[in-house]
Specification:
GO terms for molecular function: FAD binding; oxidoreductase activity. By secondary structure, this protein is α+β, with helices and mostly antiparallel strands. The protein has 13 helices and twelve strands. Strand 2, helix 2 and strand 3 form a beta-alpha-beta unit. The longest helix is centred in the C-terminal third of the chain and has 18 residues. It is globular, with a radius of gyration of 20 Å. The termini are far apart.
Length: 326
């Protein structure tokens, strides 16, 4: 680990002043500290923001939900309002990492985490995320766990967050605070596809910090849930996953929100699946036909072609579970 300075910010103003000078924000540290140990990340200065007043979970005036950036994953998952309004969020969090990590990691840190691509974490391998212009070893290497959506010639790494998939499905908004004040970014624009600049992963400006995540109000009743398929049942990242929210009224699907993980360079929204569902009556045939559209535009690599069929089955299974007609 390389030498660095450490500052514990007493308030938001002190944190922003230090961030303006190029420091890196840290709270739970469950991702950044690991990357520093492996010399993937070498920040010269760390700013501990764990004392900032960003740990509340509240219902918004419009009936949505706002979760502070410093709320621990375990706290958000267990919060009665989160569980009641959006079970998909609680389930995504509970299926993430280990209990010990969930007790430390924060909501803001979770969506800022970097890929688990082994080539990214191996400093001897070519990786455009770690060293722009060096190449992508995963593109023609062992890419079983890599993306089939949103890839480019520069990067094929998946985004690892389960929570981010749920936030994508629910069309959340990220609130930020920086030297120029507050601003909000739709979650669909917050995590960036690699293109030719895979080292740019989030739409965060220099010195900005995440203050909270807001889920808009959705018409009720809304049934939601998260399904994660992986090589082993615990402490493993997704091969495929599906975050689904459905509103069924009068026997007809009135609203459908579907996003998938483990298959994209960012959490991948499935608008074609959503369109196929809305206005239809739940049925065996509908779930199967909608799931067939889950892989439109997929670009499998040498070792991850199995994800195409696996994703269809994952989406269909979750639709059946939440929508009935099993």
């Amino acid at each position: 680990m390389h030498p660095f300075t450490y500052t514990k910010a007493a308030d938001t103003r002190e944190a922003l002043d230090a961030g303006r000078r190029g420091g890196r924000y840290i709270a739970g540290g469950t991702t950044l500290v690991d990357l520093m140990r492996e010399t993937v990340e070498r920040p010269a200065s760390l700013i501990d923001i764990s004392a900032l007043p960003l740990s509340d979970t509240t219902v918004t005036k419009g009936g949505g939900l706002r979760i502070g950036a410093l709320v621990r994953m375990s706290e958000a998952a267990a919060h009665p309002t989160v569980r009641a309004l959006y079970p998909v969020i609680s389930q995504a969090l509970e299926l993430s990492a280990s209990a010990q990590l969930r007790n430390m990691a924060t909501i803001g840190g979770n969506i800022m985490q970097r890929t688990r691509c082994t080539y990214f974490r191996d400093v001897t391998a070519d990786c455009n995320k770690r060293e722009p212009g060096s190449g992508c070893a995963a593109l023609h290497g062992y890419n079983r766990g890599h993306a089939i959506f949103g890839t480019s010639d520069s990067c094929v790494a998946t985004h690892p967050s389960d929570l981010a998939v749920a936030l994508a499905a629910l069309e959340a908004t990220i609130h930020l605070l920086g030297p120029d004040g507050e601003r909000s970014v739709p979650f669909s624009d917050f995590l960036l596809q690699p293109g030719s600049t895979p080292h740019r992963e989030q739409a965060v400006l220099p010195g900005e910090l995440i203050t909270g995540v807001e889920i808009p109000a959705h018409p009720r009743p809304l049934t939601s849930g998260y399904l994660k398929v992986r090589d082993r049942q615990s402490y493993e990242f997704a091969l495929t996953s599906a975050a689904v929210a459905l509103r069924i009224g009068g026997g007809v699907i009135r609203e459908a929100k579907v996003a998938v993980g483990g298959v994209g360079t960012v959490p991948w929204k499935l608008p074609a699946v959503e369109r196929r569902l809305i206005g239809e009556r739940p049925s065996h045939r509908l779930w199967a036909e909608a799931a067939e559209q889950a892989t439109d535009g997929a670009r499998p690599l040498k070792y991850n072609g199995f994800k195409v069929e696996l994703l269809k089955r994952t989406v269909e299974r979750q639709l059946r579970t939440l929508g009935g007609i099993t």
